[in-house]
Design brief:
CATH architecture: Sandwich
Radius of gyration: 19 Å
CATH superfamily: q2cbj1_9rhob like domain
Mean pLDDT: 92
Strand content: 15-25%
Largest sheet: 7 strands, antiparallel
Bound molecules: fe (ii) ion
CATH class: Mainly Beta
Helix content: 25-40%
Structural class: alpha+beta
Number of domains: 1
CATH topology: Jelly Rolls
Length: 289
């Protein structure tokens, strides 16, 4: 859960919704959301029927890029160890990357935002959470989705493989690393992610299991990374003191320690910009050394 959000930042961007202090704006937002969601559900059925004849064949294997070969992991491990985050370009090899781009889901699979703090589209039916039967691709709500996008099914399997776990263990200097969840997101002009802390960072006690977040930027464009959804790390919740802002958002990944008190978010996206991204969470056995 996101905490420590600045209401001032939201107010200045017209994204503050509170029934008590801004009733008209809040009611308008909720009505708009309800109507757009109804339209989406209607369109989704039609699009699924059309998409059945346009499926993309999945790649035989999912392969990581050269930067994730064992011999090249040292510098990312060092940076993660000292700064609690690292950024890896060319995350997947070119063939895999192209296939994932070819399989990015249609907009009808993404829900309209629920509030102004996470003002971008989120895909419920492609959501995967370990241990929850209703969020796997064998569950009825995900089955149809993964039949249409078999490349994503292969990708999810790969992320849950021992090969991927080994890489995360090395980078984060952890004894164990287990995939915990996957989310696919879509953002465009006007989207916004309020700088926030994750609750896991707040309530941690010594010895607790910790999380690491991997934001995988698949494709973005239309403006600079800062203004096309480049999730950055900040010392504050108003974008005043950046620690790191991604330099490219095509096949790159920002990996950060979930218990570090990093504010993360991105400012209003510029007209014409777009961003396709995924978030992978790994549960680590112990705090990185
Ligand atoms: Fe977060």
């Amino acid at each position: 859960m996101a905490v420590h959000i600045s209401n001032d930042v939201l107010k200045r961007r017209g994204l503050f919704y509170s029934l008590r202090s801004r009733p008209l704006q809040t009611i308008y937002f909720r009505m708009k959301r309800a109507i757009l969601e109804r339209i989406r559900v209607y369109r989704r059925r039609k699009i699924i029927n059309k998409l059945k004849s346009f499926t993309v064949s999945p790649p035989a294997t999912i392969t990581l890029g050269e930067n994730l070969e064992l011999k090249n992991l040292g510098k990312f491990r060092e940076q993660f160890n000292s700064e609690k985050y690292t950024f890896i370009k060319d995350f997947f090899c070119t063939d895999t990357y192209n296939k994932i781009c070819d399989s990015f889901p249609h907009e009808v699979f993404f829900n309209y935002p629920k509030d102004g703090t996470k003002f971008y589209s989120w895909s419920d039916e492609s959501r995967w959470i370990r241990g929850r039967n209703n969020t796997t691709y064998t569950a009825s709500n995900g089955k149809q989705f993964f039949e249409l996008y078999p490349t994503l099914k292969n990708l999810y399997d790969f992320l849950d493989s021992s090969e991927m776990s080994e890489k995360v263990k090395i980078i984060t200097n952890s004894r164990d690393a287990e995939l915990s969840s996957i989310a696919i997101t879509r953002a465009q002009e006007g989207s916004f992610l309020s700088p926030h802390l994750d609750t896991i960072g707040e309530n941690r006690k010594a010895g607790d299991k910790v999380m690491c977040n991997i934001i995988y930027f698949l494709l973005a464009g239309g403006s600079s990374p800062e203004h096309s959804g480049g999730t950055g790390l900040y010392l504050d919740n108003e974008f005043n003191n950046p620690i790191f802002i991604p330099t490219t958002m095509r096949n790159s990944a920002l990996i950060y320690d979930g218990v570090e008190q990093f504010y993360h978010g991105y400012d209003l996206m510029a007209p014409g910009s777009f961003r396709w991204a995924m978030v992978f969470q790994f549960k680590l056995s112990e705090a990185p050394l």
